[in-house]
Amino acid sequence: MLDNAPDAGAGVGPEMSPHAGTVAGTEVSPQAGTVVGTEVGPQAGTVAGTVVSGETAPGFEVVREAFAANLASGAEVGAAISVYLRGRKVVDLWGGLADPEPGRPWERDTLQVVYSTTKAVTAACALLLAQRGELDLDAPVARYWPEFAANGKERVPVRWLLTHQAGLPTLDHPVTPAEVIAWDPVVDALAVQRPFWEPGTEHGYHAHTYGWLVGEVVRRVSGRSLGTFLAEEIARPLGLDLWIGLPEQEHHRVSRIVTDPGGFDLSAIDLTTVPEPMRDVMAAYADPASLTVRAMMVVQPLLDHNDPREQAAELPATNGICTARALAAFYAALIGEVNGHRILTPATLAAATAEQVAGLDRILRVPVRIGTGFGLPTPDAYWYSPTAFGFGGLGGSLGFADPSTGLAFGYVMNRIRDGVPDTRAARLFEAVKEAMQAHA
Residue 270 pLDDT more than 90? Predict the structure, then answer.
């Protein structure tokens, strides 16, 4: 029988690699992708010879089978999935290795860096302030952050920070890891940066800068860093193992990110042989001077989210650290109550998940749909629903919810697969749908 408690611990507040698909300083051990027959936890069960720990509610055993298949295939090193349905936890599974080199198993309380999946958590902090009347999303950013008015940004509303319309996906001069860990140097640079397009006229993914922009507004309004605000207002009340800025005493629980070697050498590809629309995407990533590459390379040298210093810092675009259980419970508490707590009211949530912009993204070069801080799936996305919202991260982590069905989904993993189609989360979601349809 599954209990409904999200996590035993609570907490708060680092970032995506500036080069897509790469985590600097990470090597893949020879055992990467191999699942050993180590039983992890008192409720461990074996499916098709692969050890899977955790529980599923009656009828959701098919999700365990899909999760075991992912592990057995070698696609995973370690991973976890949790699902809530109408506020009740129905899936809570984990398995594989938290660190392949010493063979450390993935435990019930293993934590994972989730890269851009963090962005929805950051958005929720700003939306909570707006819900309380402390932040006007349509007021100029400069009302709360006066220095931001420099170089023609005096009328940019807070909302455009959340919808990636501010024209600030990068900086004229890259910043160092030490500067982003210190916080003030990077937000001071953004305050005086001239936009790369007229704000409001286009939208382009603010891969790194999103977190500093929204985080600084939260800090100016609340008087607390975004990580502290998250801990005090969301994570602790709900009992979530969810941080932006990981406390030192929790570092031993974090899984090691493992990045596949190799990937595409875009410079060696004849783009005339590439079919549209991928030609435009690949051309943007192949050009080191493109805004696409500059947005991903705003921090130099590259960040390494395995570094405990980065895990302890607050990088609110990409270094959220959590369990799958906490991620699913976070989304469940956005669309309903979890143990008597709800983060956003139905009215706030409806406004936040209404489409604000859609179409070709200036940075990603693919069509996207954006709400106020939340990503909205395009119709070709495997998790598409007209009412679904969420955010995915580098490597494949994903959190989302669908108010129409009451579903909240959290998937985290430590293997970043570069240059290959990644169907791990899609397989799990198909199993979740199958279980839900069987019990409709």
Answer: no
**Amino acid at residue number 324:** A
Distances (CA, A) of 277 to 9, 220, 360, 364: 45, 41, 11, 12
User: Is 116 one of the annotated active-site residues of the chain?
Assistant: yes
**Bridge partners (DSSP) listed for residue 45:** 52
The percent helix, strand, coil of the chain (3-state, each to 5) is 35, 20, 50
Is-cis flag, bond preceding 301, omega within 30? yes
Answer for the pair 8, 109: CB distance below 8 angstroms, yes or no: yes
pLDDT band of residue 419 (cuts 50, 70, 90) is low
Q: CA-CA distances (angstroms) from residue 108 to 31, 52, 225, 411?
A: 22, 11, 29, 14
- Max Cα separation, the chain? 61
Alpha-carbon separation of residue 168 from 73, 85, 116, 141, 319 (angstroms): 41, 38, 17, 13, 20
The pTM for the full model equals 0.89
Residue of 53, 82, 116, 222 marked catalytic? 116
> Distance from CA of residue 328 to its chain's centroid?
12
| Residue 143: burial class (beta carbons within 10 Å; 0-12, 13-18, 19+) | middle
- C-beta of residue 17 within 8 angstroms of C-beta of residue 394: yes
